[in-house]
Amino acid sequence: MAYDAWTEGYLKAKQSKANKFDPNISIRFERVGNWIVSAKVLGGYKTVICIYHKKTLMEHYKTEQITESQKAFNNAFQRVIDLAKKWN
Q: How confident is the model at residue 5 (pLDDT cuts 50, 70, 90)?
C-alpha cells in the first residue's frame, strides 16, 4: 500500500486533544443542530471561535478574532453561529 500523507495527517488530528471540543476551557459555547460553536481565549484580547461536530467533537472550522469589546465579540460569535446554522 502506498504512503498517504493526507490519511496520516487526518488520523493524527483525530487523535489530538487540541482539535477536540472541551467545555472546560470554553468561555462560551452554543449547540446548533449537529454542531457546537465554541470560543476560547488565546491571550489578552485574542480569541478563537470554532465549530465542532456534535458527535465526534472534532474541529471543522476556526477563526481568530481580536476583540476589544464585548459587543465585537458577540457579533463575531453570532456570525459563526449563523455559519453553523447554514451547515445543518
A: confident
Q: What DSSP state is assigned to residue 45?
A: T
Q: Are strands 28-32 and 46-53 parallel, antiparallel or unpaired?
A: unpaired
* Residue 59 CB neighbours (<10 A): 19
Band of the pLDDT at 1, cuts 50, 70, 90?
Answer: low
pLDDT 10s digits, 36-63:
999 998 888 889 999 999 998 988 999 9
Name 11's Cβ contacts closer than 8 Å, sequence gap at least 6: none
Element (H, E) at 76: helix 70-87
User: Could you identify the residue written with the cell 465526534?
Assistant: 56
DSSP annotation of 55 reads T
